[in-house]
Amino acid sequence: MNIFVLEDDLLQREAIAADLQRLAAANHIKIDQFTATSHRDELLAAIAGRDPQQIYFLDLEIKGVRQAGLEVAKAIRAKDNLGTIVFVTTHSEMAPVTFKYKVAALDFVDKDQSEEDFQQQLLTNLLYVRDQRQTVAEIHYFYFENKTRTVRVPFDEILYFETSEQAHKIVLFTTNQRIEFYANLNAIVRSEPELMLIQRSCAVNVNRIVSYDKSNMKLTLSDGTEFPVARRKIGKIERLLKHNAK
C-alpha cells in the first residue's frame, strides 16, 4: 500500500503519520511508500501511477486557503483515478462542498473528535484499501513499461490505440484520459488478445465495439468514436461480432 499525507501543520503532520504507520503495523498492512508533506507539488510528484492500493489523507485548508485540499484532490484524480481520497480537517462544515468537486472522496475525518474515534476512522480507511486486493486481482490491466514510461490501465477502460504523428510513438485513448508513449503497435496487439488491428495505424478494444456498418465499412465504439475498417479486416470483424452476439 502507498500512503500519502498532505498537512501543513508540522506537529499534526507528524502525529497523523505516526498514527498511520502504527495502525498499519498493528494490522499487518505492508506500506510500500509513505509520503507526508506540506507541499502540494511534492505530493503530486511522488505519485508513480494509478493504483487502487494508494490512499491520500488530505487536509482541506493548506497555508490559509480553505479549499486548497480540494484543488489538490482534483489534481490527484487527474493522475490516479483508482486511489482512495480521505479528507482530514477541522472544517467539518465543508463536508458537503467536497461532493461538488467530484473527486470521489471516501471519507471525511474530523480532527476535533476524540483521539480514539479519530484513530479508529483512520484505521477503517486503511482496512478498506487493504481489502481492495481481492477485487484488484480480478481486474485485467494493460501493462507496458519501457525506459521512460510505465503504463498501467484497467483494460475495460481502454477504447483504442493509434499511431502518433511522432515516429515510434503511439497514443492510448481510454474512457477518461489520453496517454502517449514509445512502443510498437503490432507488438502490443500481439500481447493482448482483446485488441484488434482494424487498419495499419489503429487497434481497438473489441469489447468496446457496439456496432458495425457493413455498407460503409465503419465500426462504432462505446464512446461514439467511428473508425473505417480496412477491407482485409472486414471478415474478422463480422466473425467477431457474430461470436459476441451469442
Using brief descriptors, characterize the structure shown.
elongated, about 250 residues, Rossmann fold, 8 helices, about 30% strand, alpha/beta, 5-stranded parallel sheet, 2 domains
What general form does the structure show?
elongated
Q: Structural class of the secondary elements?
A: alpha/beta
Strand content: 25-35%
Query: For the residues shown, what is the average pLDDT?
Result: 86
Itemize the secondary structure elements and their pairings:
Layout (H helix, E strand, L loop, with lengths): L1 E5 L3 H17 L6 E5 L2 H7 L7 E5 L9 H12 L4 E6 L5 H6 L4 E6 L4 H16 L2 H5 L3 E5 L4 E5 L3 E6 L5 E6 L3 E5 L2 H7 L3 E5 L2 E4 L3 E5 L4 E4 L4 E3 L5 H12 L1
Parallel strand pairs: 1-2, 1-3, 3-4, 4-5
Antiparallel strand pairs: 6-7, 8-9, 8-12, 9-10, 11-12, 13-14, 14-15
Helix pairs in contact: 1-5
